[in-house]
Amino acid sequence: MINSWLPSKPSFFGKQRHGSKKGSIERHKQYRPNAPVSTRWGPIQGIGLETGEPPVFNTEYEACAKVAREHHLAFLEVYRAVQKL
């Protein structure tokens, strides 16, 4: 037997499933308003979260990438500039 160390059936066939669970799951989405931020390159769209002090702001990837392409800048330069605001 050349492949004697291989199992006769893969474990995903039959009743040998490991880690499968059935049941219902509730999902709650937190309200995240869109908030544009003014930069020297113009407004950049992002998402604001008011979870504590100070409020958290995350920019959209595509918004930063678009500004970086239009102004011939590195993405991280735009992203970091927005995060400092």
Give start-end ranges of low-pLDDT stretches: none
What is the makeup of the main sheet?
A: 2 strands, antiparallel
Shape: elongated
Main β-sheet, spatial strand arrangement: 1-2
Structural class: alpha+beta
Mean pLDDT equals 77
Instruction: Give the helices and strands as they follow along the chain.
Output: EEEEHH
Instruction: Count helical runs.
Output: 2
Task: Using the CA coordinates, give the radius of gyration.
Answer: 24 Å
Percent in helix: 10-25%
How large is the share of residues in beta strands? 15-25%
Structure description:
With 85 residues, the protein is of the alpha+beta class. The protein has a domain at 37-84. The chain is 24% helix and 16% strand. It is built from two helices and four strands, in the order E-E-E-E-H-H. Strand 1 and strand 2 form a beta hairpin. The longest helix is centred in the C-terminal third of the chain and has 10 residues, at 61-70. 8% of the residues are buried.
Considering the chains and any ligands shown, give keywords for the structure.
single chain, 85 residues, alpha+beta, two-stranded antiparallel ribbon, 2 helices, 24% helix, elongated
Helix and strand topology:
Blueprint: E1 37-39, E2 42-44, E3 46-49, E4 56-59, H1 61-70, H2 75-84
Antiparallel strand pairs: 1-2, 3-4
